[in-house]
Amino acid sequence: MNLAQGRNPATAGGAAEAHTITDAEFARFQALIFKIAGISLGDAKKMLLTGRLAKRLKARGVASYTEYCKLVTAAHETVELQTMVDLLTTNETYFFREEKHFEFLDQAILARHPAGRPFNIWSAACSSGEEVYTLAMVLAERLGVNGNWTVTGSDISQRVLASAEGGLYPLSRTTGIPPEYLRKYCLKGVRSQEGTLLIDDTLRRHTRFLQVNLNQPLPELGPFDVIFLRNVMIYFNAETKRDVVARLVQRLKPGGHFIVGHSESLNGLNETLRPLRPTIYIKP
User: Fold this and answer.
1) Per annotation, catalytic residue among 7, 23, 28, 52
2) Among 26, 60, 219, 251, which has the minimal tally of Cβ within 10 Å of its Cβ?
3) 151 and 35 in a common domain
């Protein structure tokens, strides 16, 4: 039976709004999100967790975080469990973030890539898709919009993947895109779509989006010429980082490049990859 059944909605809603999470309840969610996604949720994130989940308690009519934890771990509540994961794992991203990586991709990798040979990139923690379409713009400029290339974007969150696949963004979030790329690869919304920007199909047809949990055995993907794993390992402990990187390196071609965020490093985490420069590695 649904936990919301048999309750007075006003009472249940009021209880959820007024409820605070105990240390023991927060510890249960810390263990749960670590088990699912490998994310180490620090004690300082308690307010973040309650801020993101409080509305779900109200929506489902449960009166405590203990009850909500029981709800999301019930075998028949896979949708609510995914909703919880979506709420606790969404991350900030934007177009051309850490632009030096895209310059390296263009000038040091793509410039040397043999003409006509397929080229495949994986954005392994793509969030709402800005990294994927940034990569697509760089590849289209160097290899052509009709070239033999693909960009795969993956994330654990179904919600951000749905947004990414649509390729529609508020204009306020597109300021990092160079003006010439805006003209060539983006469509400005008009009338009911005013204030938005749509990634043109010339790029979108080279992309695909998949739900992938990096903390679990990977689906059959690749092999890839380049893997971007940026700004996600900061949420993992050292053991999880080692396991995730080891899984992804198996999907990287010999001679392929592995790129992490500017605040991240693979020092002591992997013996296969060789550092080229800070945050950029190569598989011999």
Assistant:
1) 52
2) 219
3) no
